[in-house]
Amino acid sequence: MAKFKTIITTAGAAKIAAVLAGTASIVLDNTAKMAVGDGNGTLPTPSPAQTKLVKEVHRAPINRASIDASDPKNIVAELVIPPETGGFWIREMALYDAAGTLLAVGNMAETYKPSLSEGAGRKMVIRMVIAVSEVSAITITMDTTTVMATQDYVDSEIDKHAKSRSHPDATLTAKGFTQLNSATNSASEAQAATPKAVKTVMDATNLKAPIASPALTGKPTAPTAAQTVSDTQIATTAYVKAAVAALINSSPDVLDTLGELAAALGNDANFATTMTNQLALKAPLASPGLTGLPTAPTAAAGTNTKQLSTTEFVQSAIAVLNAAVTSALALKAPLASPALTGAPTAPTAAQTVNNTQIATTAFVKAAVTALVNSSPAALDTLKELADALGNDANFATTMTNQLALKAPLASPVLTGAPTAPTAAAGNNTTQLATTEFVSRAVSPALLMRGDLPANANLNNYGPTPDFIGKWGKYSSVGATIANGFPEDGAVGDVEILPYNQFGGGQRYTVRGGRMYLRNLTGVWNGLDGPWSDWFEIGGLSSNKVLPGTVTSLSDAAWFAQNTTYILSGARGDGPVGLTAGQSNAVILSLRRSGGTIMGLCQLMFTPAGTYERRGEPNAAAKWTAVTWYPGGDANGWRLVGADAMAAIGQGISSQNYTTLDWQQFDFVSGQNIMVNVSQWANAPAGLPYVAGDIVTVECIIARNNADRYVVNVTSQSTGNGNRKDYRVVIYGAKGSRAFGVDQLFTSDSSTVIPIINGGTGGKTAAEARTNLELKTAALRDVGIGANQIPDMSFFTGVKADTGYQKLPSGIIIQWGLAAATIGVLSQKAYPVAFPNAALHVFLTHNVPNDVAGVGLSGARTQGSTTLFDYQIQSLKVNGTDVTAAASGSAAMSMHFLAIGY
What we know:
The protein contains 14 helices and 41 strands. By secondary structure, it is of the alpha+beta class. It is flat and about 165 Å long.
């Protein structure tokens, strides 16, 4: 069985059949494409059912397509991959026609296509040879101007050209083969002159004068041209003599000799130059450019013609004009500050005009009247207005100074000691609060009480007049939790405050700024409460470092309520699995010690995440023993957020663990754990990893309430045989867990996948066929050759009264009905054309079943693959010869059967 091959796809075969049926077309032109792929890493086996390559890596228009010259049933398609494209393996190829239909797929010997960026770019040509039974079904129309000629193609064409003698003869317009001829008088344009013929002609030519600048000797003669000729014809002495005689005869008698002409020119050999110099000193009539001081006659005063005007004429005219203008201007007023006389008048403007227009007396009278009429009767004279202003010439200044001594209504800035009425106690309005009102309202809360007694118990300091105010505690003596202080040694200030529905509370500020608050939880009993627990207001930050001598993170001597420490290095009861570096953290302890409920909550902020644990202390042992709530590791710690993430099926990825105890570890859904197999304990049987191997344990199901977990275990090893995956089902309580281990088969070449797990149970193809009970049919290709299995695409045909059937061997059987007239030769086209030849055609008449008829007819192929000739010679019906009667009558139906390939 061939390892490498190209086959027609099911879609391609169907399209070829459609082309033969006349319902489609297949075109291979410059828009048709070829694709190559890497088979996803393995050599694929082409399948007719393919609709695409296994893994395509490159696709481009074909370079060219042609019919194989060595085998006309093969079509060759060619793809050129340029040097700059590459970086992939090639194991498979495909051909798409111009419409995008996948016509054929094939595999090939694997080869790597580098790119220029890898330093080894090269051009690669991929040729795909496709065997097609119906080559005529495919139309090849390549634009040769866009086709790249490969080296193989060029070499082949040059070789064929060199060996061929069928070259065209040379013509006057094209190169080609030609025949030599030594004749010097031949008129042939199909033969070439030999060197001998050329020498003969050159010898004769050397005895001739050249056309260009000939050096003639002896007494050469030439025809004498007529006197009317004036071109490049040679002038003889007779021509020159006649021309000179004609020149003299055309002149007057006084100028028909050179002497007379010289005398007329004043015997001046430079007559033209002399005249040119004289003319240069003259002015032209049109627009002369005169120089120096040209003069002209002065025209009479009042002249108004085209006569030139002299300076004398102009000065006289200007003097007359100046006298007239001066007389006229003397009667006018100047624009700037005119001193008008008499009674000058101007138009009166409307009262609405307010610009630089002159105001007439009428305009002013109307304006004054309007001003007076708009004032009240008591203020319509200047005296009345002066009296109203107190006869104060500086009335505006006086009022401004008086207003400066007043406070504004909006945001006044009062000075001195302003006073106001004191509001009644309990007033809660916008009335001004005097110092008297404020002092009465706030004096109890701000009362400074001084230092607390050394034996003071804060539980006895209730919201009563004897205790309300601010007290100081400046010594740690007696400042204990037992005496109601928020912490032992609490040096600071305490405020007894009257508020809330039960009467009040206490606020304690310790030295360093931390603040605590507690409230009455009921009506003051007059003695010691009842008080709530102290709680800190802020102040959780700290720069205190926990000494290395403190080995327990629940030591009551160090972890008092709301205490924050900085940790350096691991402690014995820290989160399980953290390295020393990951244990460099900050720990916050929140402890409740009052009331009926006591408990401890700790938060630990580490580089690996935030951990928390909660527990119930043994009060009798003074917090030296704590029972941690379940759900954490062996020390009670669990990763913050793990519960919420588990609820949505997610965990924390890529956690590095130094140890993993399969019997005790709490798995979280979605969690990824990386651990060295040498460091885990109580591992399930059936995980045969090599010591030192790093594996990832991924929890995919975590049912904590049912003690059931499912994890996948994956090795990071690259060694063949160690790269195996397993799925482990864990069930049962901690310490007594049971495990179920199943291998997840991978692409490791050492792994044999059993048939029950979807594999073949073998490492080789032969083992797989044996295990799967596949016989020799599994080794055969699909095709039409020997020992090949044909598929239904090789049996295409049309089932109808007129139809055909194609067989895998290439034989085509066609049938149908044909109309005929007795005694008349007719023709009938086949349903489809035979690709190569029509071998036989058979004809019989179509007589109705109720008529017993026999006849004689004939048909012939005539070498045509598209139609055949036929004729009915005679016909008998019910034993009666009807040939003569029917000859030339209406057509009747005939059956035909044709065989060809």
